[in-house]
Amino acid sequence: MREAAFVRQNKEKWLVFEKALNNNMKINPDDLASYYIQLTNDLSYAQTYYPDSKTLLYLNSLASQAHQKIYITKKESKNKIISFWKYEFPLFFKQYHSTLLYTFLIFMGAVLIGVVSTLNDDSFVRLILGDSYVNTTINNIENGEPMAIYKSGSKMGSFLGITINNIRVGILAFAFGVIFSVGTIYILLTNGIMLGSFITFFYNYGLLEKTSTVWLHGTIEISVIVIAGCAGLVMGNSFLFPKTYSRRVAFVKGAKDGLKIVVSTIPFFIIAGFIEGFITRYGEQMPSFISYGIIFLSLFIIVYYYIAYPILLNKAIPQIKNNHLSEQTLFRTQNA
Prior knowledge:
Layout: H1 3-22, H2 29-49, H3 54-75, H4 79-93, H5 97-120, H6 124-129, H7 131-142, H8 155-175, H9 182-204, H10 212-240, H11 247-278, H12 288-316, H13 319-334
């Protein structure tokens, strides 16, 4: 077809599309996708048969504008982030509940090791928590302030330092899963043994009830470390047990799924850091009903969001899966 005939045949729809884009007219997503597909087909044709023409330059410019319009439309979807946290992640995470259970059992086994070892060997706690921490805490106990170590430092400085460190631990728990899950198990064991030693250390001094101050932030902090460990096992196990996939494909899928899980923990790490930086330091002065209220509320939020809610959501509104997948497919089609 001659270039002039090609232009005459398609000029009207190009001008309509250009006018809509330049005037920032609201276009139905289905119409936008249809126009864009037609435009890219025309562009491909022009690239083949009119490579040095002004028509090609025009279509390139129009396609670029259309692509930006589609991208902005997708980006401005105010419900996208809400949809991820409310529907996409819980529906997705349900499939990994069994992995979360195994992760929890590994962690609790490590806690038990820490408890038994500290009960039977006074030097074990120093090996795990370090002489500096143990000596400082013993001095604080003798001075009648066993939790004084959590009052040191500025509030904001503590919040930022603790949050960054906790996120680092969570990322390590995930990233070490690349070593065939062994690295993640190591992180879970070390943190679990540390927790067991810490609890038993205060128990040996008859101060077990004082650890409630630490659980103000520790409830969320420890929970999301376990969840980050679950992310690491998801990635590591995908290579060890690829099922019907090739190991490469299974590993890539496992890495993506694990990353999605560890990303979900970041807001909770921030909340835990905020509590430790701004609230834990007042834990000993708090009425018991407030401190235990914070602890049980924190536990409820974690259990509900990661366990109960995904189960309820999968049972009650399974059609959301299809709706969400359809939305993703639409945007993939629009950007094809």
